Amino acid sequence: MDENDSPPTIDIPNVPKHLRITGNWVNSNRIGIYKKLAKGSSEKYDPTVYILRPEIILFSPQLRKLVNESNGVFLSIQKIKSVSGDVRPELLKHSKQYRSILRACIESLQDICGRCLSDKKESLENFLTIFYQIECVWHLIEILYVDVVPGDVVLPQLLEWIRFHFPSRELVAVKILAQKTIGADLEYPNYWEAVIGCALHGKLDLVRALLALHSKADHPAFVMAENVLKTMPIYNVYGGYSIDGFTTCWKRWQLELCSNLNSKAFIVDTNLEMIMKLIAGEQDMLWQFSQYTDAWYELLAAKLFYTCPCCKQPELSLHANNISKRWQANRPSDNAIRAVMESNLHHVIKEIQYMGDNGWFAAHLVDLLYACGKLKILDRDQVEVSNQLHESLILEYGNTLMGHHSLWQCGASYLIHCPVQGLARLEILLQSLPMGSEARVNKILDIARDNKMDHIVTSICKIQGLKSMKQGRLGNALAWALKAQDSGFITYIADQFLKRYAEYGELDCRDLLENLGFCMMASDRLTFLGKYCEFHQMYSIGEFKEAASLLVSLLVSNLTPKYFWSILLSDAIPLLEAKDVILSSSDCFELLRCVEAHGDDLKFQNKIEIFRLAVARNLARALSLEGCQVEH
Amino acid sequence: MSENVQGTFVSEKISKIRWKHEDFEDATNFITGSWDDPVNKVTHWIFQMNDDGESYPAVVSSYAILGDVTEIKFISKDFFVLSTSIGTVRLLQIHENPYSQFKEHMSWEFIHKFDNTNDYASCTGLSTFEQDIVSVGEDGRINLLTAGQKQPVRSINDADSCSIYCIDFLRHNEILTGNLRGHMKVWDLRNDQDLPATTFMLSDQSKTEATSIAHHPTQRHIVVAGGGDGSLTVWDLRHNTYPMSQLNAHAKAVSEILFHPDRPENLFTCSTSGELWHWNNTQHSKLSLDPTNTHWLNTIGTNGKVNVTSLCNAMHKPINSIDIDRSTLLFGCDNEAIYVVRNITV
Fold first, then answer.
1. Is A97 in the B-facing interface, judged by CB distances under 8 Å?
2. Inter-chain touch A475–B116, beta carbons under 8 Å
3. Core-most of A254, B187, B189, B294, by most CB within 10 Å?
4. Are residues A283 and A391 in the same domain?
5. Which residue of B has its CA nearest to A485?
6. What is this protein for, i.e. what is its function (chain A) (predicted)?
7. Which residues of B touch A58 (CB under 8 A)?
8. In a domain, A333, yes or no
9. Are residues A177 and A303 in the same domain?
10. ipTM exceeding 0.95?
11. Nearest-5° angle of CA B104, CA B108, CA B114?
């Protein structure tokens, strides 16, 4: 940015002069402004916070099409980059795709603009100007940088470019010609304007056709003009002659025309004479006709056509400079076009960033040129900075899109293609996205997974888990914790289950816990919870033997949390007291060992006597049973 | 992009797209639902001819919806039900007279919510059987509704301790739900107890979410479910709940599974990975009597009888929804575009 740029000023309403304001970033493109009271001030505290954000035109519904469609082309270019061989024709195709997207956008804007009310019209017209200029500049860049111009003679393409963007006078000419009335100059007041317009665009066939309709078309002066125009040599790379050969031929033709002019051959009609002077390459006449052009580059094309038809790209800048200086053109698009002709890409990029399209143009254009291998930008110290520039523009554009509630997926696909800082930026922005429904969260996770950001996946899953916990949905919290594969968090949630059981005597979310499968191994506490749940399951369907062995294995597993010992031990009592002997003598010894080690829980104090008694009775029964079994 | 695929950018991400089927002719109208905007829309489209004789979709009318549209299902020719991410289900009609517009006939507000915090919960899906509607949500609740009645017929509040992601009406009294953990539950609606008739797993190996369920149009006991890992699993629920076949299909989550309604030997699947596949078994003639009497989906993974073709180049954003009418398929994508694929060989 230039040093003399004045930063934009925004007035904050209702702030008296003596108050200070201060601001904080809300996210990457929002800033919160609030009043700051001086110490000891008697002023009443005002809690209003103003949120400032740049207006992003790309977010308007009419332009979202452009954003999404061009995203597709951008991604397709990224695929080409990895292909070896001559990719230039493919890239040219993509450049044309970008332009056709721009055209479609302009057309749909015109369509809406015609139908809408005046208050919206202004902004739509503003969009139209912006994208019209972008398309114009893009087209020129495509000619000069992306396309391969045969023999490096750029004039034919330049003329095509001019004709494409300033079609109005040719349309008038075609209208006049369609009527085929002799004496068209008398019928149509804009007859000469059309002729001059066509002459400036180098459409000589149209000029001749128009002159043939003139009321004095049979006059020798008009016949001679027709002859001159018919014999004008036009350079064609495939014409079979060299540039030098062509130049000689053309110079001869021009000399002849000049001598005719000097002998006042065309004096019968001033307009005709003026046009012939233009065709003979007279500078003054060119400037007289400048009133019939809308932009300096229209004049440039005419000048080249009549004075320097074999102009090559390097010579372009000199002519461009002369004309644009005299024209005093200084819209951003004028400057950009001049810079393009001067082959000063650095300046081009700087100018197009002022076009007010939120970086769409700069990012996509630079990416295309980068893919073409045409981007060579040197900084002040003559160090090549093309890579950095390319990355920073795409990064900024992606960053802007990430700030939108719906276009964030699109934004992410730009950030992914910034090799240096892209992923780091994506990491930060993904985490700052509002979460919303689980469907949305899954899409965010998907992007994180694609880019191997495991810690982001974990952290988002944990946030979801915590959210579920706040909503009182322990089961869902556990499901997210398992997705996060964070054993600490899983342990924490499993603990919540066990504590709730300890308090209310009921296991929640049995449907989930009974179907954990191998996920149970994710943490020791969860294994304990899963197995304990299994114990209840067995007990409730009457599989006491199975239940008992589960209980004993839980007791010896050493996984039991301290607060849960009393429950486990209490659970053993009915099994010990069952009619059949379920627990063996060795099980009983284990139980006794456990109660010695862990039976000092206060909650268990009133049961400890019963427990000991039950164990003793069961042990007696078990020993005698086992003794009998050994004998047999 | 292949020649028979035509895209239209619509400036909103499409979560659902559904044909409005006609009785004896090709459908020309369809509706879309959007997501991720502050106010979303359900839009009615019609295919029109432009000056060049090309058919293109044009908006007929649209209707603002709060929250993301999460499902759209037609229950008759012009009545459809839609669910939203703020836990509401609406019954709308495409009203033709005097001019085409949407008319809301019923709205079940916030029937999915978290009881603890009283926050709304996303209604993740719904399924219909004639006039009956069943909706599921992130709150793990199942709501049974019927088109003519404001009060839900029945709510199973703790149907699942995790978020339910998908639902399918198998028979008039039987529904199948799939949740975040890939637990599939069959519910017998005649049973007053709020417990599933059977529970089985989407996949034993990987605990991935069930994202979509579809049943065979004529053999309703044949059920296909898609997983968050892109897998497809097929069950024959007459026999048992062990999958008939299971295969890794898409690279990422399956977003929708669709049987061709008239030619059920064609199956279509789309995915978050941007893939759109056509599974076709037409060469396996229906007339030839298969001695083993196995369903074609049974052998989907093991032999080469099934053709799988990609209907378009992979999209760079998730494809969220598909629908087919005869040989014309529609799909909606997160790149804010809708696409039509014509002349599919079915």
1. no
2. no
3. B187
4. no
5. B207
6. Functions as a component of the nuclear pore complex (NPC).
7. none
8. no
9. yes
10. no
11. 145
